[in-house]
């Protein structure tokens, strides 16, 4: 069996979009002096789909959500030619070939995102060829179902935040994640507003549900150090990406303070990147995203490393490429789940582009033992609301 073609398409949403509210979520561009739409670096409304086809007509489906037009060019110009004529079951060899032949520019970022999309497609293809779900190829079930947390609760008026948090309680979730809307430039008044957000959500969900808080790299070390003692009273399960991904020492130092567990990793890449984070004791929770970190081939190695360090892996974003790994690893106690919603940040596009994603039942997700591969396919239901770039 040989790979015959690698097809890439970018799907850009041209349908209705919910405009971002003020103080929606902090992000790394907040420190710049521009006062325009800093959320532009946070929202993304395009998705890359990568299809790897074999001579017998089987197609593996991969995807990536970072800078999809550039990732498409990287696959088309560099990686696709390396794959033609190869056996899709040679995943480790193919991963190393892609990684080593473009090592000068692909270790992190765009190149690794492209490798991730292809690698996910290869695992989907292998599953389809043998008629088994991907998690069965990764070691099978380690849990009867996957606990998941509702991840949204962006900054908004407190009564609306309260109602949204209550809706997740009503749906049976026992864990939720909220976003901070204010950062270093907003001074003590912003700190107070952030604390009002946390207090509101904690009040709604009560003491017996997990509460996680997201900074999306919008704070600085100094700001985070001042916020952490104030957050301690709310029993936060983790504080996510308080500083930019390159500030590994910042993560280590914040974690050492011991007020609140620190999570991160959705902007880190490969086994080597996570080895650094773990060796430097930077994280309490690992949050790689399979469609950035190097695909399933890289993610499963990080799972093994995390198991050795006894650090939990709770991948960024949920979605099928992450759920299969979560099902197959004892290092992964839980998954993120983005509630299905009108297109806003861009995370929601996954549901508009693919069908087959499981929906939570009382806070748990289930994967089908009999659906081959990842178990998703392209949906045509909303195809008219996308511009398709071939
Ligand atoms: Mg995050």
Automatic annotation (TrEMBL):
It comes from the Bacteria. It holds the Pfam family MR_MLE_N. Keywords: Lyase, Magnesium, Metal-binding. Homooctamer; tetramer of dimers. Its cofactor is Mg(2+). It is an enzyme of class 4 (lyase). InterPro entries: Enolase-like_C_sf, Enolase-like_N, Enolase_C-like, L-lyxonate_dehydratase, L-Rhamnon_dehydrat, Mandel_Rmase/mucon_lact_enz_CS, Mandelate_racemase_C, Mandelate_racemase_N_dom. This is L-rhamnonate dehydratase. Belongs to the mandelate racemase/muconate lactonizing enzyme family. RhamD subfamily. GO terms for molecular function: L-rhamnonate dehydratase activity; magnesium ion binding. Its EC number is 4.2.1.90. Residues 158-261 form the Mandelate racemase/muconate lactonizing enzyme C-terminal domain. It comes from Pseudaminobacter soli. One of its GO terms (biological process) is carbohydrate catabolic process.
């Amino acid at each position: 069996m040989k790979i015959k073609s690698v097809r890439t398409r970018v799907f850009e949403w041209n349908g209705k979009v919910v405009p971002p509210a003020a103080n929606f979520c902090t992000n790394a561009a907040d420190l710049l002096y521009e006062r325009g739409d800093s959320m532009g670096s946070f929202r993304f409304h395009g998705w890359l789909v990568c299809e790897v086809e074999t001579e017998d007509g089987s197609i593996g489906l991969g995807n990536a959500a970072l800078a999809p037009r550039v990732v498409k060019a990287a696959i088309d110009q560099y990686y696709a030619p390396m794959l033609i004529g190869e056996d899709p079951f040679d995943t480790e060899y193919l991963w190393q070939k892609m990684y080593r032949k473009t090592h000068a520019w692909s270790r992190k970022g765009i190149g690794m995102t492209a490798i991730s999309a292809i690698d996910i497609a290869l695992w989907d293809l292998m599953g389809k060829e043998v008629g088994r779900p991907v998690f069965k190829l990764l070691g099978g079930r380690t849990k009867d179902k996957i606990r998941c947390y509702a991840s949204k609760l962006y900054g908004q008026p407190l009564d609306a935040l309260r109602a949204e948090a209550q809706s997740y309680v009503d749906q049976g979730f026992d864990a939720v994640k909220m976003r901070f809307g204010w950062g270093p430039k907003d001074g003590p008044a912003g700190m107070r507003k952030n604390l009002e957000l946390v207090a509101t959500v904690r009040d709604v969900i009560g003491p017996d549900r997990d509460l996680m808080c997201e900074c999306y790299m919008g704070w600085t070390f100094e700001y985070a150090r001042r916020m952490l003692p104030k957050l301690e009273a709310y029993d936060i399960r983790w504080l996510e990406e308080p500083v930019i991904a390159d500030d590994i020492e910042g993560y280590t130092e914040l974690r050492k303070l011991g007020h609140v567990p620190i999570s991160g990793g959705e902007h880190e890449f490969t086994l080597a990147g996570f080895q650094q984070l773990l060796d430097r004791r930077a994280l309490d929770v690992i949050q790689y995203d399979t469609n950035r970190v190097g695909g399933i081939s890289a993610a499963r190695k990080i799972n093994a490393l995390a198991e050795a360090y006894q650090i939990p892996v709770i991948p960024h974003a949920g979605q099928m490429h992450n759920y299969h790994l979560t099902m197959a690893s004892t290092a992964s106690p839980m998954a993120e789940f983005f509630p299905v919603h009108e297109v806003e940040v861009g995370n929601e596009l996954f549901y508009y582009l693919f069908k087959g994603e499981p929906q939570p039942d009382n806070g748990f997700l289930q994967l089908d033992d009999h659906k081959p591969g990842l178990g998703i396919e392209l949906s045509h239901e909303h195809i008219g609301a996308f511009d398709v770039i071939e």
